[in-house]
UniProtKB/TrEMBL annotation:
<dbReference type="GO" id="GO:0046677">
    <property type="term" value="P:response to antibiotic"/>
</dbReference>
<dbReference type="GO" id="GO:0005524">
    <property type="term" value="F:ATP binding"/>
</dbReference>
<comment type="similarity">
    <text>Belongs to the aminoglycoside phosphotransferase family.</text>
</comment>
<keyword id="KW-0046">Antibiotic resistance</keyword>
<protein>
    <recommendedName>
        <fullName>Aminoglycoside 3'-phosphotransferase</fullName>
        <ecNumber>2.7.1.95</ecNumber>
    </recommendedName>
</protein>
<keyword id="KW-0067">ATP-binding</keyword>
<keyword id="KW-0808">Transferase</keyword>
<keyword id="KW-0547">Nucleotide-binding</keyword>
<dbReference type="InterPro" id="IPR011009">
    <property type="entry name" value="Kinase-like_dom_sf"/>
</dbReference>
<dbReference type="InterPro" id="IPR051678">
    <property type="entry name" value="AGP_Transferase"/>
</dbReference>
<dbReference type="Pfam" id="PF01636">
    <property type="entry name" value="APH"/>
</dbReference>
<dbReference type="GO" id="GO:0008910">
    <property type="term" value="F:kanamycin kinase activity"/>
</dbReference>
<feature type="domain" description="Aminoglycoside phosphotransferase">
    <location>
        <begin position="9"/>
        <end position="159"/>
    </location>
</feature>
<dbReference type="InterPro" id="IPR024165">
    <property type="entry name" value="Kan/Strep_kinase"/>
</dbReference>
<keyword id="KW-0418">Kinase</keyword>
<dbReference type="InterPro" id="IPR002575">
    <property type="entry name" value="Aminoglycoside_PTrfase"/>
</dbReference>
Length: 167
């Protein structure tokens, strides 16, 4: 998995990040009309609310920025973010370093595709960007540059990071 390679081989982190960015660009280039699964904002919000209402959200697993927050605090803060125009692509849905298979510095596959579907590209960008943060801001910046993001939409990023807290 990519996380294991990143931890064990600091000397190839740049190459791995470049390979991940190239893989994600290819995934996001799949025509949305060819994907039968919908995972857009409305769908994900409904699923998140169901998880909240049935007590299936693990508050102990919240990111450091939301440590000590209640589920309802995250929900309200997320919904209070400014609205944004969606940029629909075919997304993995849980694009973490744990879900990417790496061999010899190349992405050879991905696992845990249960949330795959058409959604805003920041669904994947936010989750990966967050994971790369464990290795420092230089790798995060490299990923964005290699993927082709000239300027991060911080509100979209925050929205998708908070949305991910519910899953």
């Amino acid at each position: 998995m990519a996380i294991q390679v990143m931890e064990a081989r600091p000397d190839i982190r740049d190459a791995v990040v470049d390979a991940i960015a190239a893989f994600l660009r290819r995934l996001h280039a799949i025509p949305v009309a060819e994907c039968p699964f919908d995972s857009d904002r409305a769908y994900r919000l409904i699923q998140a609310r169901k998880r909240i209402d049935t007590g299936r959200v693990d508050v102990d697993d919240f990111d450091d920025e939301r440590e000590g927050w209640t589920v309802e605090q995250v929900w309200k803060t997320m919904l209070d973010l400014p609205p944004f125009e969606p940029d629909p692509v075919v997304t993995h849905g849980d694009f973490t370093l744990d879900n990417l298979l790496i061999r010899e510095g190349e992405v050879t596959g991905c696992i845990d595709t249960g949330r795959l579907g058409v959604a805003d590209r920041y669904q994947d960008l936010a989750i990966l960007w967050n994971g790369l943060g464990h290795f420092g801001p230089l790798l995060q910046a490299r990923f964005l540059q290699q993927y082709g993001i000239a300027e991060m939409n911080w509100d979209k990023l925050r929205f998708h990071l908070m949305l991910d807290e519910f899953f």
